[in-house]
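so ive been stuck on this for like two days lol. basically i have the seq below and the ligand is adenosine-5'-triphosphate, smiles is in there too. i just want the complex predicted, nothing fancy, no docking runs or whatever. if the output looks off dont worry ill sanity check it later, just need somthing to start from for the group meeting slides
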Amino acid sequence: MSKPAMQLIGLKKTIGKKEIIKGLDFNIHPGEVFGFLGPNGAGKTTTIRMMVGLMKITEGDVIIQGKSIKTEYKEAIKQVGAIVENPEMYPFMSGKKNLQHFARMIPGITNERIEEVIKLVGLEKAINEKAGRYSLGMRQRLGIAQALLHRPSILILDEPTNGLDPSGIREIRHYIRNLAEQENVAVIVSSHLLSEIELMCDRIGIIKNGEIIAINSVHDTTQQTDLKEVHIEVDPVQEAKQHLESILEKEVKVDQSKVIISVLREEIPQVIKSLVGQNYQVYGVQVHRSTLEDKFLELIGENTIE
Ligand SMILES: Nc1ncnc2c1ncn2[C@@H]1O[C@H](COP(=O)(O)OP(=O)(O)OP(=O)(O)O)[C@@H](O)[C@H]1O
């Protein structure tokens, strides 16, 4: 596996007596989109602020391309592009003028690089319009272009989908995936809504109360979402449970007069046939989709995350 673009090592933050971040350890790799997911107040912004040197680290470290943000700040931060608060824009200037303005503050940014970042975020058509006329999604993309000017190897976006409509989210998703794939940039996106980031991420780390409680590869978990939760009203229910456990070779739950199983869609007819074949009385079958969202809610142990 490639050398990590960023490493979090026992990262902690204490404010007053409160331990807000309780020791985070994980790596992010070049070309990967990493989702940092958690309910409001979980500690995402605090972690991101430490990653980019905006907040002092209480204990542990953040290593960016081998350089410590604590002891080699200048070298480390060169590798980072970030939008932590709303991107600063001059509304009366065109998108391009905004980029040129920011480029002047960074040594060595050429006009070619400006054109390149405009293409990377798909703003070619609108780049000469005033930024004040941009939609929220376009403003976000201009912010990303700005963060990419100095060719960072890691891009950190705090809640980039916040407030965007579905088409805005789709566009951001498309350009973020492009960046990771074409430029080999490692991207970290934070969010409190799984549905907004699951399609753009390779892995998702779930944070709750300042701790990582799970890191899932989205590709694996998406396969699991093909599993359906099936509720079957059947009599006698306890015997049916035992029968299903023996054929499915896994535990089957019972809820009053129903058994609840988790199977692939194509397995459902077999299961029903088997029950009927064994003379169980089947009164009804309901199929529920088990989504990653359910899994997320289960993991964070709440019914609602907003
Ligand atoms: N300066 C501070 N002093 C005391 N507590 C703080 C301070 N900053 C943040 N916190 C607390 O730390 C916890 C984590 O906050 P943080 O903003 O990092 O969460 P978050 O996951 O980014 O949530 P959100 O999406 O709401 O910003 C919260 O409980 C918050 O109240």
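Residues 166-183 form the longest helix (18 residues). The chain has two domains: 6-222, 226-290.
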